[in-house]
Amino acid sequence: MQEKLYFYYTNDLHSNFEQWPRVATFMKEAKARREKANDSYWIVDIGDHVDRVHPISEALMGRGNVFLLNEVGYDLVTIGNNEGITFGHEDLFHLYDDAAFKVVCANLESLDNQLPDWLSQSVRIQSVQGVKVGVIGLTAPFNDYYELLGWHIADPYAVLEKLVLELKKTTDVIVLLSHLGINEDQEIARRFTDIDVIIGGHTHHLIQTAEEINQTIITAAGKHCHYVGEVILTWDHRENRLIKKEAYATNISEINEDIETTYQINSLLEKSEKALEDVIVTIAEPIDVNWYRHNQIMQLLTDTIREYTEADCAMFNTGLLLDGFSEGTITLGDIHRVCPHPINPCIVELSGAELIEVVRASLTKEFMEYPLKGFGFRGEVLGKMVFSGIEVETGILRNGQEYVDKVKFQGSPIDTEHTYSLVTPDAFTFGRLLPEVAKSEKKNLYTPTFYSRFFEGNTEGPLLVVARNRDK
Hints:
With 472 residues, this protein is α/β, with parallel strands linked by helices.
């Protein structure tokens, strides 16, 4: 006798709620088919369901996301870095208090040894006909951020060494919900042959038909839930083993939206907008933002961050402000709309020579027009860099390209051998955009102690006094 076990999954929604009603339709139809046939099935999410770029997630601190997962009927979720490091400690501690599903993340630890009641390292579930399944969840170890927020992410491989051995003794099948990324998923499959399925996320990779390594299948459904994943495991009760493993990712762009879910999202949006309607300041003149030109509001923001962090100098890109402000009242919602990035200030130490090279790289046309995706940046292009604490003198070449002529600190030329502290968006500490920043050995992150910073000003002219100091 054979039995099929079904897992339906989503990953990396990033609060793209426009797609969620289609997800709801897909899941509800799948549930109806499985229940009619009396099949065993589970609905799971692999993390980064929350992204504070959306006002629902911002205003309700992720609780709206949990509500929507409940309404669809999810059984299991793990957490991604957007759940883990975009909230303060207490906000994450209580994020899933109202969850009707189980949260499994084996490598999330608390520095005060107090873990939330909703958290499980692993979960044991059972099919209709008695097949025992062990489920493990893992999340990416961004400990530079987690530890500042009172958490620690244990090494995924060390955690798996223990849990896989334990689950192998008490379960028939092992499934890993991995918010680690495709490279880690492939390495885990090479090392842990007892894991039957790895359902992945984090790196937004799409695997439409399962990849197999050492008899472990790997699957993932891209990002923003344009695809939904399905895993089908066939268990032979006579042979007492899995005889087939399948996984597919289905494009749901043409699926009809679930009307009830659309109504729920609209209700949550209305509630969120109301929560963000507090007026912060009233301005008599509009504030203009141009990504390719120096502007006053960005200069004030950059100056404020440098003063707040006491760094020698600061550099922030105009693309961080997605829009300007009209004259009149400015609300919390307006601030979130203009600056929604889960980005933190970060101080790095650079030699004078490195600092000059960073300044030069940041003022190139290629840099300004770069459409960065990820690393917390939610804008269109990086835009022009604005500096504080250093004086940057530039010229214009015949082709119109700006070039750096001189860089001064406190009126004198930069000492190429001296070490300077620079505060800049933490997005530049990743990747290759500014290599000197990324490879700096000393990094001091400023994570959020609360989720909004405010405008101060008067009718004579607005003043942005504190930058939004938020999540990754």
